[in-house]
């Protein structure tokens, strides 16, 4: 038998083996692509949970402030110190409806730009997007007793994400339409999630009448996992002042560390508040470029593969998507990028909120629960 005959005899045996290897490699590549895709989706979910929900919360708070007739404490002479007033503080507001803006909170320890709305109620929607929520059955600012306020510690702008950094004596300031109420931080306590005595009128002695004016901040513990407990921060009242007189000295720090009062404009993303316009722009750009490239070049890569000018490609999910875009190579890559960006926007705008609302594990991780 000649060498040529020997090679011909081996050919039918080698080809099926090559095909099997090709399929195995292709399947492995698809599995790898799916795993990478899953990792990217998980990373996007974290971005949505820890960043984008905060942007949406800021947007809602900006809109709430814009709808009121409250003066901006940052306008005019912000260096003017409001004179502490004597006597019992006025109570404001005397009552508030569910979801109504009743105060703004400032805690300098949390940074110059930390400012949050306080609305009436602690429903999941209010805590997620309105800032901080006031427990309806607790006292109003100025009343004898306990002004109890709840807020998220992770996600949704994490308004109380840094309660563990509070130090004894730190200022906690509430501003209503006409008055400032200045408290100082005293201590904290970690309690079970169903321990409601911490928001009683007298949280130190729940069975006794209140003998002082207090503020209580409640948030989730631990921070980034299922919240089995609550982190309770207490403060006691120092004094009250008039908004028309200026700003409390606690908000006017040294060496340029003054609180930077919101100008009700916010960041570009906060003013946007939704990814739907971005999604629509991406889809429109994709369709325009796709149709233009289709008219100019059609599908040159697929044509070359069919004619045998290009080898048959390996099995690949993203390779298939890339090949089926119209136009030359740079245009195909641009179209694929636009398509993936539009998909990412759709996930963050509609997909992830649905998952957080309907998947039990994700619903728990979203820290929606309150007392």
From TrEMBL:
Q: What keywords are assigned to this protein?
A: Hydrolase, Membrane, Transmembrane, Transmembrane helix
The record's section on Gene3D superfamilies has: Sortase (2.40.260.10)
The domain of life is Bacteria
Q: Which InterPro entries match?
A: Sortase, Sortase_Class_E, Sortase_dom-sf, Sortase_E
Q: Which residues cross the membrane?
A: 23-48, 278-297, 333-356
The UniProt entry, under SUPFAM superfamilies, shows: Sortase (SSF63817)
UniProt-listed Pfam families? Sortase
Compositional bias (Polar residues): 66-75
Entry's Gene Ontology molecular function annotations: hydrolase activity
**Active-site feature positions:** 152 (proton donor/acceptor), 220 (acyl-thioester intermediate)
**Annotated region Disordered: where?**
64-98
What's the protein called, per UniProt?
Sortase family protein
Q: Please report the organism this UniProt entry assigns to the protein.
A: Bifidobacterium mellis
């Amino acid at each position: 038998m000649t060498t040529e005959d020997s090679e011909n005899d081996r050919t039918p045996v080698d080809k099926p083996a090559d095909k099997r290897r090709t399929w195995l490699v292709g399947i492995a590549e698809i599995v790898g692509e799916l795993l990478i895709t899953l990792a990217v989706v998980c990373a996007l979910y974290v971005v949505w949970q820890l960043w984008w929900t905060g942007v949406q919360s800021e947007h809602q708070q900006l809109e709430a402030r814009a709808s009121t007739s409250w003066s901006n404490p940052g306008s005019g002479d912000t260096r003017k110190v409001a004179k502490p007033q004597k006597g019992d503080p006025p109570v404001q507001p005397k009552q508030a409806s569910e979801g109504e803006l009743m105060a703004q909170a400032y805690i300098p320890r949390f940074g110059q730009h930390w400012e949050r709305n306080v609305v009436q109620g602690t429903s999941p929607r209010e805590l997620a997007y309105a800032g901080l929520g006031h427990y309806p059955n607790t006292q109003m600012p100025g009343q004898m007793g306990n002004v109890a306020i709840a807020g998220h510690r992770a996600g949704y702008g994490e308004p109380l994400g840094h309660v563990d950094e509070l130090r004894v004596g730190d200022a906690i300031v509430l501003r209503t339409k006409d008055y400032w109420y200045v408290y100082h931080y005293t201590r904290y306590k970690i309690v079970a999630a169903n321990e409601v005595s911490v928001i009683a009128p007298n949280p130190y002695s729940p069975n006794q009448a209140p003998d002082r004016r207090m503020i209580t901040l409640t948030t989730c513990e631990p921070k980034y996992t299922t919240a089995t407990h609550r982190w309770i921060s207490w403060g006691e009242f120092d004094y009250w002042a008039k908004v028309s007189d200026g700003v409390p000295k606690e908000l006017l720090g040294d060496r340029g560390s003054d609180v930077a009062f919101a100008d009700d404009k916010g960041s570009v993303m906060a003013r946007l508040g939704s990814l739907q316009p971005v999604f629509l722009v991406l889809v429109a750009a994709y369709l325009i470029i796709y149709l233009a490239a289709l008219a100019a070049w059609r599908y040159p890569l697929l044509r070359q593969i069919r004619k045998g000018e290009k080898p048959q490609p390996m099995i690949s999910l993203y390779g298939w998507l890339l090949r089926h875009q119209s136009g030359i190579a740079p245009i195909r890559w641009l179209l694929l990028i636009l398509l993936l960006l539009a998909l990412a926007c759709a996930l963050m705008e509609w997909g992830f909120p649905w998952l957080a609302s309907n998947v039990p594990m994700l619903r728990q991780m979203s820290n929606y629960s309150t007392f």
